[in-house]
Amino acid sequence: MAEHRRLVIVTWVVVIIACGVSFPFLFKQLKAPNYGVNGTASEQASTLVQRHFAGQGNEQDVIVFDTARGRIADHRAAIGRVVAAARASEGVVTVIGPFDPQAKRQVSPDGRAALAVVGLKGSGHDLPGRAEKLQTAIEDAGADGLEAHLTGYSPITNDQTAVETADAERAESVALPIALAVMVLAFGALAAAVLPLLLALAGLALTFGVIYLLTFGFTFDAFLLTIVTMIGTGIGIDYAMFIVSRFREELARRGVTRDGERRHEAIVEATGVAIATSGRTILFSGIIVGISVCSLFIVNAPVFREISTGVLISVACTLAAALTLLPAVLAALGPRVNAGSLPERWRPADLRSEEKAANGPWARWAHLVMRRPVVCGVLAAAILAVAAVPVASLKYGIDLGTASLDGRPSAKAQHVLERSFSPGAVSPVQVVVTGKGGAPLDAAGTRNASRLAQQISQDPRVADVEAVPGDGRMLLNAVPKVPIDSEAATGLIRHIRHDLAPQAAGQRVLVGGATATFVDLSEETTAKLPYIMAMVLGMSLLFLLLVFRSIALPIKAVVMNLLVTAASLGITVAVFQWGHGSGLLGFTSVGFLQVYLPVTVFVLLFGLSMDYEVFLIRRMKEAWEQGHDNASAVAAGLEHTARPISAAAAIMVAVFGGFLTAGILELKEFGLSLAVAIALDATLVRLVLVPALMRLFGDWNWWLPAGIGRRLPRAGQERARPPAGTRATG
Fold first, then answer.
1. What is the mean pLDDT of residues 40-49?
2. According to the model, what pLDDT value does residue 727 have?
3. Which of 1, 234, 448, 720 has the least C-beta neighbours within 10 A?
4. How many CB atoms are located within 10 Å of the residue 305 CB?
C-alpha cells in the first residue's frame, strides 16, 4: 500500500464520496424493528389472521381524537373528515370510526376523547411507511380544536426511529471532541491524533454504503444504524491508534524525524513493520469480533440477524480501511505524522530512547504489581465478582420506549388512551381458535371458542374481548388494560397459553399480537443463550490458541473476558433493572433489561475486549521472543501498549458513554454496559490482572506441548527465541 499510496488514497476518496451520496437514501430504506421469531405461535397466529381474517389487516392501529374544550361529539364533522382521509390512505383495509354503527365503546366516558380503529395491510417492510403516510393524512385533515394522532406498533417505531437518530447525533457530538482531546494527549501530536478519527469516518462511510446496497435484498431497522455507528466509531479509532502508535515507534527507531532528511525507504519499511505487527494484531482482533458476532445467527429472530450482519459489515469495512487506506496515508505523511507535537515529557515512551522506555511509568507499574501478584490479582478478581452478582436476578422484557417519545404523535395518542381508555388498545392480543390442523371449527369447537373468550374477558388485566368469525375459525381480539410492553401484559399471554388454551380440548389455540411476539423472542433468547456462549467461548479459545501458541494464555484471556462481561451486565442490571441511579441518568426503571441486550452485549463485549488482550499479549510475546525473561517481557509489553490501550479505552468509554444522554432507554442500556465493560477491562484487567497472572504463571505462560505445536498452523512469522544465556533482561 505504501508503494501505491496515491492510487489507494484516490480510490478511497471516490468510494467515500459515493457512499456519502447514498447515505440520505439509506434512511428511507430502514424499517421498523422485527421482534418476531420464525415458526413460533405468534408468527403462526399472524399468518392465520392474514389468511382467514383479511378484513382485520396485518396490524391494528388506533387514531385517537381529543379535545381540550367541549365534548368530542361537537366535532363529529371534523372526525368524519379524518376518518375519510384515513380510509383513502395507502394500505388501509378498514377504519371503524367512533360514531359508526359497528363502533363499540369508542367514545370515552367523559365525552372528551374518541378513537377510530384502523386495519393496515402489508409486510413488515411496508407497514412503517404506510403508517407514516397515514399520520400525514390525519394531520392534513385535522381541524382547529380537535387533536388527532395515530398510535400502534408501526407508528410507535416510526417515532422511535426519529428520536433514536437525534439521540445518536447528540451522543456523537459529545463523544468526538472528547476522543480528539484524548488522542492528542495519547499521541503527543495533533496530526497523529486526527488520523484515527478520519479512519473511523472512512470505515463508517463504507459500512453505510454497503448496508444501503443490501437494503434492496434484505430488511434493516433504524436501531441497527445506531449500533453500527457506536461500534464502528469505537473499533475504527481503536484499530487506527494501534497502527499509528507502532508506525511512529518504527520511525523513531530508524531516526526519521520531521527536522531530518526524508528517507523514503525507511518510511516504507516503518509502514510495513507497523502493518506486519499491529496490522496483524487488529486483523486477529477483527476475526475474534466476527466469530463472536456470528453466534447471533443461532437465534432464530430477524432482529439478531440484522445486528450480527450490521456489526460484521462494520468490522470488515473498518479493517479494510485500516489495512489499506491508513498505511497509504502514513506512507504519504512520513515524519509529518508528528506535526503539532507536545513537549517531550508528554510524548509516548515509544518516541523516547529505549533506556527511558524501559524505565517508563507503565513498566514500573507492571513491576509493582508483579511484586505482589496474589494480592493484586485476588483484589481485582473480587471487585469484578462482586459487580457480577446482580446478573443472577436478570430479567428480560421489551420496552417500546413510549415514555421517551414526548411530543411525538404516538406519545400524545398513548397519553389519551391511558387517561380515557385502555393503554392496551394500541395493540390487542390476537387469539386464533381453529380445529385440529387449522381446520374450521365444528359446533363443539365454536362453543369452546366462546367459552375461551368469556374466560379471557374475566381476567382483570383485560378491558374488552371482541369475537370475530372468519372462514369457520374464530379470532378473539383482547384489549389489555395494561401497557402492551409491561410485565402484566406478558403474564397475560402466558396465562392464556398455559392455563386457558389447554381447556379448549380438541381445538388449536394460537396467541399472537405484539405482546405475544415479545414473549416468544424472550423465550427464544433464553433458550439459545447457552449455545451462543459455548460457540463464542469455544471458537475464541481455539483462535487464541492459534494466535498465542500457548495453552495458558487463551484460557486466561477467556476467563478474564467472562469476568468483565459478567461485571458489566451486573452493573447494568443494578442500574436499569433495580433502578439505582435512575435520577442521575434521567430514566424510570421498567424492572427488566431489553430482551436482546444481554446476549448482544455479551457477544460484542467478548469480541471488543479481546482487542486489548491480543494487542497487549502479542507485544509481551514479541519481547519474550527477543530474549527478555518473563517479568521483563511483561513490563516491556505493558510499557509499549498501556498508553494506547488506555487512550483507546477512554475514547470507547466516551463514545459509548455519550449514549447515556439518549432519551430512549435501550440506548442508555447499551451505552452504560459497553462503557463500563471497556473501563473495567482497560483498568482492572489489563493493568492489574494480566501482569499479576503473567507473573504467577511465569514461563508456563509460553508453554505449548511439542505435539500440538507441530500440528498447529502458524498465524504469522515468529522469531526463534534466543538461547537462555543471551536473554535480555531490560
1. 90
2. 45
3. 720
4. 18
| Location of C-alpha cell 487506527 | 240
Cβ(351)–Cβ(188) below 8 Å? yes
State the first-to-last Cα distance of the chain, in angstroms, to the nearest integer: 35
3-state helix, strand, coil in the chain (%, to 5): 70, 10, 20
Q: Which of 275-289, 310-324, 673-687, 706-720 has the lowest mean pLDDT?
A: 706-720
Nearest to 179 by CA among 648, 681, 686: 648
- Contact predicate 488/453, CB 8 Å: no
- The pLDDT assigned to 346 comes to 61
The burial of 661, by beta-carbon neighbours within 10 Å (0-12 exposed, 13-18 middle, 19 or more buried), is given as: middle
What CATH number is associated with residue 259? 1.20.1640.10
Phi, psi dihedral angles at 720 (to 5 degrees): -75, 135
Same domain, 508 and 521: no
The three grid cell numbers given for residue 15, joined into one nine-digit string: 468510494
C-alpha to C-alpha distances, 400 to 397, 471, 596, nearest whole angstrom: 10, 34, 13
- CA 63, CA 135: separation in Å to the nearest integer? 9
Q: Which domain holds residue 122?
A: 41-151
Answer whether residue 398 shows pLDDT above 90. Answer: no
Distance CA 531, CA 523 (A): 14
Provide the whole-model pTM.
Answer: 0.80
Rounded Cα gap, residues 432 and 74, in angstroms: 38
> Do 578 and 628 fall into the same domain?
yes
pLDDT at 449: 93
Residues with Cβ within 8 Å of 136's Cβ and at least 6 positions away in sequence, in order, are: none
Backbone angles phi, psi at 432, to 5 degrees: -100, 125
Phi, psi for 63 (deg, rounded to 5): -95, 120
Query: What is the β-pairing status of strands 92-96 and 113-120?
Result: antiparallel
| Whether residue 507 is found in the same domain as residue 540 | no
Instruction: Tell me which DSSP letter residue 702 carries.
Output: G
pLDDT given at position 127: 83
CATH code for position 135:
3.30.70.100
d(Cα 46, Cα 513) in Å, to the nearest integer?
A: 7
User: For the chain, what percent of residues have pLDDT higher than 70?
Assistant: 94
Residue 476: strand pairing partners: 431, 467
Listed residue (719, 333, 392, 360) closest to 577, CA to CA: 392
What are the helix and strand counts (H, E) for the chain? Answer: 25, 10
Closest CA to 394 of 145, 650, 569: 569
The per-residue pLDDT for range 564-594, each reduced to its tens digit, is 999 999 999 999 999 998 888 888 888 889 8
Residue where the block lists cell 382547529:
144
658, three cell numbers: 455519550
Residues 407 and 317 in one domain: no
365 and 330 co-located in one domain: no
Same domain assignment for residues 219 and 312: yes
**How confident is residue 347, by pLDDT bands cut at 50, 70 and 90?**
low
Cell of 55: 378484513
Integer Cα distance of 28 and 679 in angstroms? 36
Nearest-CA neighbor of 603 among 182, 245, 310?
Answer: 310
Whole-number average pLDDT of the chain: 86
Is residue 198 domain-shared with residue 307, that is, in the same domain? yes
Q: How many CB atoms lie within 10 A of CB 147?
A: 17
Residue 487: phi and psi, rounded to 5, are: -65, -30
